[in-house]
Amino acid sequence: MSDHKFFDESTEQSQIKARIVAKYFWAWAKVIIPTAKKKGNRIAYMDLFAGAGRYKDGTISTPLLVLKTAIADEDMKQMLVTYFNDGDAGNASSLQRAIDDLPGIEKLRYKPTVDNKEVGAEIVQMFSKMNLVPTFFFVDPWGYKGLSLSLINAALKNWGCDCVFFFNYNRINMALNNDIVREHMNVLFGAERADTVRQKLNGLSPYERETLIVEEISLALKEMGVRFVLPFSFQNEVGKRTTHHLIFASKDFRGYDIMKGIMAQESSEYTQGVASFEYSPASENLRLLFELTRPLDDLEGMLLQEFAGRTLTVQDIYEQHSVGRPYVQRNYKQLLTAMEAAGKIIVDPPANLRRKKKGTVTLADHVRVAFPKRSAQ
Description:
Arc Repressor Mutant, subunit A, 15 strands, disordered N terminus, Rossmann fold, alpha/beta, 8-stranded mixed beta sheet
């Protein structure tokens, strides 16, 4: 295999993963840059398992996508600091050459750093001691070695820092009860939680196992103060088994909102306009299965119950209710508009006083919504 290339081919799943990361990096940077200009004039992107830069078929991977974005943007050219690491010396060398060959790379104020370290306690300690500028971390291990709660915690300790990490569910599911890699699982979940997970897994179906494992890693992050955790799952070729997840972690709702929109767009299925937050190569053959659920109908019932007797803005409803649920902002606006037309809620100002856009009455973030009190049983 050429030093300039890695993996046999760029699969559709790997392209979607790279696209999600690259889209979020762009959106994140545009939100962060105005404030960062007042706080040191730097932002950063760090990829701890960066690979060699190109697939064997020539497709560029995430590091080069990020650098191409920076080269094309005037602010990023002056502000972006990049750090790429790979524990394989051949990959690190190949990535360095791929970066050096990238047209316009000399326009970046800060030359990209390529490192060759094993991701473990040393790197965690390094980040823990640093006062990080606003940084977007991508942690994409081939398996699970190097991925730990302490690493994610260190990455998110400063303002403006967000993280996306690769959660190899298929391998982690098999490793949890494997004593040979027990310590890796203890580092990933925390020793006490890992033991609890092992006990709970007994007798569970494959779907229940996946739900439990992803829920437990999400709860572990939230216990560290990571308020917003958002998983995106990838299915195998027949759409019957999850192979891995891409998990977003942030302490800020704005980042969560942006990533939710991106992951929703990359989902392979929608039901009533609600995204599945998964990619399945077999989704074209499974449309009937997805249509058997009606998530917007479920959402209406939840809103009427949770906000009964209360008046809130559209934005407040979205922020308070959407975390941990598959709904994006347009789902709430679509449903609230329909509920208003059906007389189920009172909206101020009402539809006849709100402006129209392309023939549709708009529902701005500041519009207030009054929910009826619960009827006496």
